[in-house]
Specification:
The chain has 96 residues and is an all-alpha fold. It has a single domain, classed as Winged helix-like DNA-binding domain superfamily/Winged helix DNA-binding domain (Arc Repressor Mutant, subunit A, Orthogonal Bundle), CATH 1.10.10. 70% of the residues lie in helices and 0% in strands. The protein has seven helices and no strands.
């Protein structure tokens, strides 16, 4: 674990960190996120490092997965269905 991880792990995400994490979950690049939030791409990358440390993740993808599991990134019903494998999506639709 990094020193940053030792210091920050378990700390709650700030509102801005949550916005950056949501953009990462959406597949936005640091430049795209920065443009939308009026930040430099380097600042976005700094936020992402802090998010990874706070969540105790190995990388950005792992941070998004952990945030989804912990309910930190709410998914709309449509988005949730898009993320499910095709077979699981069909089974879910049958149960409605």
């Amino acid at each position: 674990m990094t020193l940053l991880g030792e210091i920050l792990e378990g700390e709650p995400l700030t509102e801005r960190e949550a916005e950056v994490l949501a953009a990462a979950a959406n597949g936005d690049t640091a430049a795209e996120t920065g443009a939308r939030l009026h930040l430099s791409s380097e600042t976005v990358r700094s936020y992402r490092k802090r998010i990874i440390a706070k969540l105790g993740a190995r990388n950005g993808t792992h941070a998004v997965a952990l945030a989804l599991r912990k309910g930190l990134l709410p998914l709309s019903r449509e988005r949730e269905l898009q993320l499910l494998p095709r077979r699981a999506q069909s089974a879910r639709e049958l149960r409605r």
